[in-house]
Amino acid sequence: MKIDLTQTHDVDGAYQAINYNDIRIKYNDDATKYCFDVLDGKRLAGYITKLACFRNLQDLKRQNTSDFPYHYDVKEVQNTFKFASIIPDVDLHKPLPLMDWQKFILAMINGWKDANGERRYTDIHISVGRGQGKTQIAGIQMCKAVLIDTLNFTNKDFLITANTSDQSTKLFGYVKKMLEAVIKIEPFASIAKESGLDLQTNQIIEKETNNKVWKISYEADKYDSTHNVLAIYDETGALDTYDRMTDITDGQAQVIPYHQFIKISSAYPDPTSPFHQEQITMQHIMEKDYSREGDNSLCLVWAQDDLDETFKPETWEKSNPLIGLSDEERKRRTDNLIKQRDQGMLTNTLHKFQNKNLNLWLKQSTASYLNLKDVEKAINDDFKIDGLICYMGFDYSMFSDNTAVGFAFPYTTPEGMHKWQMMQHSFIPWQQAGSIEAKEKQDGLPYRELAKKGYCTITSHEKGIINPEQVYKWILEFTEKHRLDVKFFGYDRYGSYQVKNITESLNANTGWLIQDIAQRTSELANPTKFLQEAYATGKITRFDDPIEETALLNAVIREDKIGIQVDKDKATKKIDVVDAEIDAMYQGMYNFEDYGLINDKSHQVERMTQEQVLKWFENPDSGLLGGETGDN
């Protein structure tokens, strides 16, 4: 059965349509039971948690097949639980029983293996609300890797890292305290003695085997010297780029007995964080159950489903699963969270509560142009553009900024609602970054992969600057290929003679209305506001394009006495796509109005090519003027 939840998001319906009796009978471990409890409605959980549980049950059905050469090692899972049961909580200094959701995390990390017996999941993404013990889980996994998984191995590295030295020190301290307690218990006391385990201030080393646990912060920039069996990155959501992450993963590729990279974090204010983009990508992969993409990546997220749940404490177990420990704990934790929420409302810091406690991604600044939820819900990948009317916008840049072409396709739904499908295509320069690889790291976008999907074009210029001839040819070829009826082409000519060359060439070779739009509030306020409100009211749809989404979420509002314009909150943020789409909406927003270009016949002759004018004179009923005759 091909299951695709990308449109319906009905994971409950998909689960109920499948018979899992064979899995219920065969697997009695606590992690599998948790999946059934979540999907049977016995345990409150959010959508992404349900997806992960559904994915696991599906994987249990398809394991050990040609398309899916992985298996679930129940013995490894039970051994993991047994080891975790003796590790003390670092705050209470005694072992605590693990909850089912915590066992689910450990089972997924350790239990799934490939045909060679190595760990299936090499890239692991874990996100849960503040104070839920995610660092504790990471510490347990590191202790297991050091004491059990690499027993009898030599010269193995393990990495503990975070954005700052203080953050990495916190997780390192957790691991150190856990190990101090565990090595008092046999057989780990003997193992520690034989290996010469030495718990130092900034590293943990086994002197006899030369296995080392390193503590390095992101700001130190020394990852390329390690080749880690296990690397754990704490508070990954704070990063605005993964530009040095490859220094961690590149060194892991050939490591034995396995290699894993675990990223843990709660949500942060900036939804363009690569940690959040990774979460979105993995959600789509899990929704495409039939696809084998991403089989080595694990995404486990406990989060609220909607901002509205800020005022529904009965749903907070979705992001705070420790609430489910007991009735007493539910009341204590819920009451405490309500106090934090109410304090946030009084101090105008509710967004911090939503980020950290409810694990919801949103834009912190009140100056944000668009809401994350509105941008995400607008996706419509099935839209067909061939033969349609469109309005185009153009934002040109030669150096570090991208050049963008924006499209607005007006359409009417079967229910009679007027909408616009937005689209963009970017041209990517890399001169200032030094290479396309560096440009990708700088912007946090995989441009070469996105180019294969048609969302962008890497500049063909040998020096890495925008090639105006390439841009011009792409615009003509794309509009001709898709038979687009271009009604308007708006652009910003500021600062570049190349723009003039492109627009004059288009003017000479097309019948488009081409207009220079002054980039000032008096000109841009109306289309800027229109696009913003159209997103909020569901009148905008768009393709699932990461370049477009990043630009939309980077944009903030700059306001003056006349109105609003978009701007960017950081110099490195890209909003050229937004500028191009606003230029397209300069006339596109009037498409359904009586005074819009499409309904105004008075200037159509001015926009015709010589061939079109001749055809109209020879046959005035040709329809070039909407069916008018030459009697006027």
From TrEMBL:
Question: From the Swiss-Prot or TrEMBL record, what is one GO molecular function term?
Answer: endonuclease activity
The Terminase large subunit-like endonuclease domain sits at 298-587
| Pfam families reported for this sequence | TerL_ATPase, TerL_nuclease
Q: Which residues form a coiled coil?
A: none
> What Gene3D superfamilies does the record tag this protein with?
P-loop containing nucleotide triphosphate hydrolases
Source domain of life: Bacteria
Q: Which residues form the Terminase large subunit-like ATPase domain?
A: 100-251
Name of the protein in its database record: Phage terminase, large subunit
Question: What is the source species?
Answer: Lactobacillus crispatus FB077-07
